[in-house]
């Protein structure tokens, strides 16, 4: 699996498990993480237009706005220029990141990113990452049906796409449809052997099992959750993800003594670059697991 894929999987375990337990939307956090990553890339890269000569937020904002105007001028003459569309999306995401650092984002803030991203998706439908990001943005403005259509389009051709699965599960959970989310994951697992036979590693079985366990934990079906984590561990005993997921659930239940050795084991098995995150998760103060019926639907 690629480095970016590995980082996504770790985010799935560390972030999605905790958020599903707490009943919080995943999509806005993913978008925020993408925004912050791009903003750091711009501000830390002295060769980028918005990172050159100044790290002052107002200066960066002015330069990003100049970039946006430049991209828009080019698109007036060449509306299907994918390189320019990608630059426009990135610049507007960076502007969102700056605004997020100064306050709360509202639905309308995401709309300037959606329009060029929709054009990119139409021009380049095989780029599933763009389609998933578009779906997450649509969910953030309340267009859940539009988000679902985008995600279904990805899953029809790539049923094991990790990011699309995560986003669809988030969408279904926010709609208070945990059984639909469970059905999606169970169907993915049922089709995984054949899919992986046709295209090796196209479905990350362990990731899907861990996510399914997380949803059962969200619904307080802890026995089923732990059963899924055990199945995942049997698939690969050296994979730290199901161990970490179980540790997080035990911690949320207040079973700190049972969780501690699992956190320690997960840290040993995990690549070195993830150990600080795991150790941090182990010592953070747990919050009570809420009832499933009290799951809030956040305002974008």
From TrEMBL:
<dbReference type="InterPro" id="IPR019734">
    <property type="entry name" value="TPR_rpt"/>
</dbReference>
<feature type="compositionally biased region" description="Low complexity">
    <location>
        <begin position="44"/>
        <end position="57"/>
    </location>
</feature>
<feature type="region of interest" description="Disordered">
    <location>
        <begin position="39"/>
        <end position="59"/>
    </location>
</feature>
<feature type="repeat" description="TPR">
    <location>
        <begin position="206"/>
        <end position="239"/>
    </location>
</feature>
<keyword id="KW-0802">TPR repeat</keyword>
<dbReference type="Pfam" id="PF14559">
    <property type="entry name" value="TPR_19"/>
</dbReference>
<keyword id="KW-0677">Repeat</keyword>
<dbReference type="InterPro" id="IPR011990">
    <property type="entry name" value="TPR-like_helical_dom_sf"/>
</dbReference>
<dbReference type="InterPro" id="IPR051685">
    <property type="entry name" value="Ycf3/AcsC/BcsC/TPR_MFPF"/>
</dbReference>
<dbReference type="Pfam" id="PF13181">
    <property type="entry name" value="TPR_8"/>
</dbReference>
<protein>
    <submittedName>
        <fullName>Tfp pilus assembly protein PilF</fullName>
    </submittedName>
</protein>
